[in-house]
TrEMBL record:
One of its GO terms (cellular component) is nucleus. One of its GO terms (molecular function) is sequence-specific DNA binding. Residues 83-117 are annotated as: Disordered. This is Nuclear receptor. The gene is WBGene00095118. It comes from Pristionchus pacificus.
Amino acid sequence: MSTKRPAKPKKRFGDCQECLVCGGKTISAHLGMNVCRACSVFYRRSVGKRVYECRSNTGKCEVSKGATCRKCRFERIERLLATSGEGEGKKSTDDSSPDSLKELEGDADHTHRCEASSSSSANECATAQPRQIVERIRSSYKTMCQIRLTSELLIRPDPPHPLLMNEDDCPYAQATFGTMQSSNRILLTSILGFGKSAFPELADLSKQLQWTLAVNFLYRFGPFESSYRADKLFPQYPDRIFAGFTYWLTHNYDEHYFSDCPNPIDKEHVMSSMHNHCKTHHTNFRTFMRRLKLTETEFLYLSALLFWTTDNLDVPDTLSAIAAQHRAAIMQELHVYFKEELRMDNYAARLGELLTAIQMFDKIDAVKENFEFLRLVNVFSEDSFVYRVLRDEAPQLDA
């Protein structure tokens, strides 16, 4: 004769424990402690994603049921997690799933939401969320690099064997005036594709605005990427930076650089002037990048921020608003990357270092000044592609 197990007593509201955060009632433990479900959901939606300000500017607001200072509520949970250890408090054995996060977010009077739910440790609660922006950028940048590499190698007088047309076997070469012009044109073309791939809504903008963003990005991204790649590929040559994807140069401009310059020039005067102008920039870029030691993911996030840095552009307010929205979304993902993937609690200093790079490579005025000098000494002609880009003389694309 079979015997039935006695039914497990159903949890009742009267059996609730007091939430250690807000003082509300909870039947089940969350975050491995006697923390109510609403507080645990609030924490999970906040960690690594949101930065709050204290309502009283004291950091000592009362945290209780119905209290509205989210910063103090969040910090109280952080302190409890730091001192509780994993698995302390009353844990639920019920496997029912929680209500939707959207429904619970910001719920002030939440004592009625004391149903059982599965508990988890603080680390389990901070599971990494998909970072869609950086993955789009990663894929788009990879495509852009492949286009640049193949295009630059194919237009060489003696292209390498197809088996050598990859980054691992790439025959990097010293840049000349002509290869630098071609590389910049290829880069601008690939930037337009990169932008539409990484940020699909870019295709909805007018071609003129797409061009404006691409040129603006070129001036910032060019020295930023060239220094980053040179630090990776040429650590033993601190005076080198990239002048394209497959071409490098140094501030010691020589006869080789001007070997394919189409105009008659005073080479000694031009080389001396370019050396004096570029030496400090090249040195500063490489020194800064060596100290920064960017991870690939940090490089991609900064590239995205550089793309949407439009503060000095004369563009419609609608585009400025779009740029601001993208910068905010990128920054939010960057916080998640530090908090959830790298598990960094105090990353403010690192974030500050990264944002300094935005200013470090904002050298548009210096680039334009240098190009104007090169035109005056007859290196550039007024009808050359690079000089027309410099003067923002894009064709009437929407005509």
